[in-house]
Amino acid sequence: MKEQDKDGLIGSFSRRTFLKSLGTTAVTVAAARTQAVAAELEKANAEKVIGPGAVPVTLRVNGDTLKLMLEPRVTLLDALRNYSSLTGSKEGCDRATCGACTVMVDDVPIYSCQKLAIEMQGKNITTVEGLAKSGTLSNVQQAFVDRDALMCGYCTPGFVMSVTALLRKNPHPTMDDVKHACAGNICRCGTQPRVMEAAMQAAGVLPKTAGLSKTEIIDYGRLAS
Amino acid sequence: MAGWPAETKYIGHSTLRIDAPEKVSGRARYSSDIQAEGWLYGMILRSKWPAAKITGINLDKALAVPGIKAAITVQDGERTVRFYGEELAAVAGMTKQACLDALRAIVVQAKALDFVVNETEGLKSDSAQVWEGSPNASNPKPREKGDVDTAFNECAAVSEGFYHTPVQIHNPMETAGSTISWTDDGITAWVSTQGIFGSRDALASSLKVDQDKVRVLCDFMGGGFGAKFPPILESVLAARLSKETNAPVRLMLTRFDQALAVGNRPSSFQKIKIGATADGMLHAFDLDNYGTGGIGSGGSSAGGGSGVMLAMPYIYEVPNSRVKQAVVNINAGAARAFRAPGHPPTSFGMESAMDDLAAKLGIDPVEFRLKNDPGEIRQREYKAGIERFGWKDKYKKPGSSPGVVKTGIGCAGAAWPAGGANRRTQGEAQINPDGTIEVRLGVQDLGTGTKTVIAVVAAEILGLKPEQISVKVGDTRFPPGPGSGGSTTCASISPTVYDVCSKALEQIQTQTGVADARGANWFDACKKLGVNPLVVHGQWQAGMSSDHACGVQFAEVDVDTETGLVTVKKICCVQDCGLIVNKNTLESQINGGIIMGMGYALYEERVMDDLSGVVLNPNFETYKVSGIADVPDIDILLINMPERGVIGIGEPATVPTAAAIGNAVFNAIGVRVGSLPITPAKVLAALGKVPAPTKS
User: Fold this and answer.
1) Test the A interface: residue of B18, B173, B644 with most A CBs within 10 Å
2) Which fold has domain A55-94+106-128?
3) Rounded CA gap, B619 and B259, in Å?
């Protein structure tokens, strides 16, 4: 959010895109607010219009280069799932509410359904497939397996990415940190208690013990009648 | 129980979910991930009218959109649509964006009709009729036992209450839909479905194709909860688009579509009068209830078995009872089976009424249940739960919790009388000379752990490790299994796999002379099979499974009387489930049932706009489900009853949660919030701090 402090708008590339989409009146109002914006607008108008047809887009995903032909309106999620074979990131809502599409861009977790692929050029994108490229599951992935932090598994890649990003930023999180990091991920099967355990296992707070649970089994005959 | 070994290595213990590595690494391919060669996107155009006469649909402009390969109408000629979101047309195109453009280009001529989307309005005789010429409300005869009116006069305490449960939307994380390829050789359909054989038969009959020409596949699926049973209109449309374009078509519903047209849990409006004699025994019960399953049966996407009618007075035996219920049709998407159809609303109504009556009698609610619950297993579960939860230390009279944030506890019981098994379940195993083994069943794993259960049972019987078993499900070319509903899957497949593996051992002995091919002898025995693999067929066996899981739950909540916010601190679940197959996935199932039940209690409700007839919250920013920060401490006590055999658990665990939470809120604040979800607005209204919400 440093950009915001400077001139009241967010991120130079998205600002340009944003201004392009505005009508003249709105732009006039915005421009009156700050000189910097006017200059930005001039620069934007001077640029060649891209699209609406497909244009070459180069993405760096999991260390590999993906060269795609995409309409500028194609989202990063759409590009991954439908223009490449990276279907690990899931589409649960396509409107920034469920988190199944979470990927990391330069270690920051984002909803890939809310970014245009064309905007993500030049960034390091990591999807869930990128965590176990060597074939060995990452600590976080292994903890999800060990703690059964998944059921149908459709939200799981998103949770795995949110927890991974958390641990990269904060290797010693509290349970509240985990809840905060996963607040944007919805699970309908009800895996959340075990996602929390998995995150704490991956952080080294809980032991790496598979199938640990406080659930007790008691024989019916031992119950008082 | 006959057959199941007494000493086990895997059954009853914890085995990690065998497909977890595929799921955590993104390698698992769901129906929505299928990228068949040359595939196209499919999308559905839906009615923007809650009721209308459709007089014409012009697809020309849609077909002219660059990248669009086909556009079809759902039905030719004039037709009537009866809910906002009913399917009108479908398109297939090269990109999602092209399809979106095409949907906007379709011209629909329609004459809007009067509609009703509010249950209470729908009951009125002058309301718009959902189905022309037939009243919206059914009018079945009240079911009466004993002499209810006289019995109420004999009661020492009588409680009257109104309890409401909303329409709940399944919202599995993967929406319904499929990828379908229809060629001259037949139809291959990757369907996100709870019933591969049901889907196959639905496609075959809708498209007039022989059943042997339709193959349905479902290796991984992203949840269902009842929403993904046939009819599968969206798959029928995908198949038609595939035929028209000579290309595979992937048609997955949008999140909006999912909320509108593929099922929901019916609402209930329960007026309950209940009375007990001075010794605290239930004596009289009277229910007047109505609820809606949307347009009901008859629509193209209507499913059966949704449970509008409640089995009252639920788990209790009341000598004098009268039950009057009506199903009200409204202009909304049809209900479908939803995790324990009928039971969560029944449990909420009855168990709320029980606590209201207990308060009038001045009896502890658990004591009141122990007096009146005829279920022998639940009796013991309550007693165990009282100790484990610390009920006696925590219990205070309703409304006596001091301070601004009040604490309360509540309990509720459940039954799942359905369950049982599909007795025609079959399976097979292919055992190769190198000792590898593939077990194949025509079932599907919704995420419950079906594949893992198969591996656990096979490993146990064969003396191998679960990871040595290659499990294949989700293919109609495998021996037929059950649809995943009614919590029947585990009880259907476990005895089946037992039979397959027992027969495999017998046949290996016959063929190789190895008397006991299990464990250490396995590889030597398999080597002696020679060149051809051994394929063994088996089927479900009686006496190894049963039904009727019970279960009780205790809830502890905080209620902030200034903001109205309810926080669930703890749920204690005491659950029987017969022979425990895999504790690890069983516990996850119970967690899931409780968390979904908590959503039902506090957050979830489909909101319809009476004036426009549209669903106002068909997405996750406005349809609230439990998030990770909402999840309470969940404490589970499993009652091991191997003598009953295998019993499914997916549904029973979700039944009593909302009722227990509702009772805990009542215990905290001393007034009843009888309407789910228990929102801050309703809590504050119950406390007299704000006016009551105008709706429900």
Assistant:
1) B173
2) Ubiquitin-like (UB roll) (3.10.20)
3) 7
